[in-house]
Amino acid sequence: MYTYIVLIRGINVGGRNLIPMKELTMRLEEQGLSHVKSQGQSGNLVVQSGFSSAAQLSKLIGEIIYSAKGFTANVVSLKHKDFLSILKSNPFGIADSEPKTVHVYFAIEKKLSASKQEFEHLLSNGEDLHITEKAAFLFAPNGIGRSKLAAKLETLLGVNTTARNWQSLNKTLKLIDKL
């Protein structure tokens, strides 16, 4: 059995693509996933599965959502150890004391190949960016709502992503303690 962190993009936001986490949890368990825990209505889950492939799990969850609600959702599934590895590559030490200022953009389908230099012209107001193969870390001390880069980052990266702030990621990690 593998423990996965699952991040579902764009559900339960702004009254669109609604799927109650209780319902999704039930549907996932009906399909053989176990110990499904959700972090509120955020689309952040922790599940256990016999799937050895994160891509297979993402595909299954996407199909379950489409079957239940009729919309397509981008899903990132990461084995617990891979999720922790990504988080450890965060260069911004301020994340623990100001967790709403650091945002992690997880690549959905393929690796990131961009470099920070390509985006420096969009950094403003003390922002900083760090890019790895699996994620981009944006330090936005004034919030992503005011960030020129945050609004364009996914398009400029050329890869579908789903973003979470550091606070949300820490809350999701705490779900593992409940397994």
Describe the structure concisely.
The protein has 179 residues and is an alpha+beta fold.
Describe this structure in words.
The chain has 179 residues and is α+β, with helices and mostly antiparallel strands. The protein folds into two domains: 2-82, Alpha-Beta Plaits, CATH 3.30.70.1280; 89-175, Alpha-Beta Plaits, CATH 3.30.70. 31% of the residues lie in helices and 24% in strands. The strands form two sheets. It has a four-stranded antiparallel β-sheet. The protein has a four-stranded antiparallel β-sheet with strand order 6-7-5-8. β2 and β3 (44-49) form a beta hairpin. It is globular, with a radius of gyration of 16 Å.
Helix-strand blueprint:
Elements: E1 2-8, H1 21-30, E2 34-38, E3 44-49, H2 54-69, E4 75-79, H3 80-88, E5 102-107, E6 128-131, E7 135-139, H4 148-157, E8 161-165, H5 166-176
Antiparallel strand pairs: 1-3, 1-4, 2-3, 5-7, 5-8, 6-7
